[in-house]
Specification:
Blueprint (H helix, E strand, L loop, with lengths): L4 E4 L5 H14 L11 H8 L7 E7 L2 E10 L9 E8 L8 H15 L4 E3 L8
Parallel strand pairs: 4-5
Antiparallel strand pairs: 1-2, 2-3, 3-4
């Protein structure tokens, strides 16, 4: 298993995160987007005004391998205690246990933020 660290996202990470997301937009259907995002559009996806929601870059050997997001699940009061978890990895880092570490890390963050549940859909399916 690859040992990773998690750093809260900063503006300096945006190009790497955009590159990772663009790969999934252009090569898969997991993002549900049909066009590559601009830097400003990506910024809206990963930076939040509400401090409850967070994005962390995933690093090993000082290289960004991916990112993990904890964000609002739905805009309904009944879901205030529920968060959505999203993990994107560079393709070369899939299958190395990094995604599992990211989910464990963000679940710990969610518990500290007093979420009662998280929702994470595994979109890595082959048909």
């Amino acid at each position: 298993m690859c040992k990773v660290i998690f750093d809260e996202i900063k503006e300096e990470h945006l190009n790497d995160v955009l590159e990772i997301y663009t790969h999934y937009v252009l090569n898969t259907n997991v993002t549900f987007h049909a066009h590559a995002f601009s830097k400003d559009e990506m910024r809206e996806l990963v930076f939040f005004e509400n401090p409850k929601y967070k994005t962390f870059v995933i690093k090993s050997a000082d290289k960004i391998n991916g990112y993990v997001i904890l964000t609002q699940y739905k805009k309904r009061e009944a879901y205030d205690g529920t968060a959505e978890v999203t993990v994107y990895l560079k393709p070369d880092y899939i299958g190395k246990g990094i995604g599992s570490q990211a989910v464990k890390f963000i679940e710990d963050i969610a518990k500290k933020a007093k979420y009662s549940r998280t929702y994470c859909d595994n979109m890595r399916r082959k048909f």
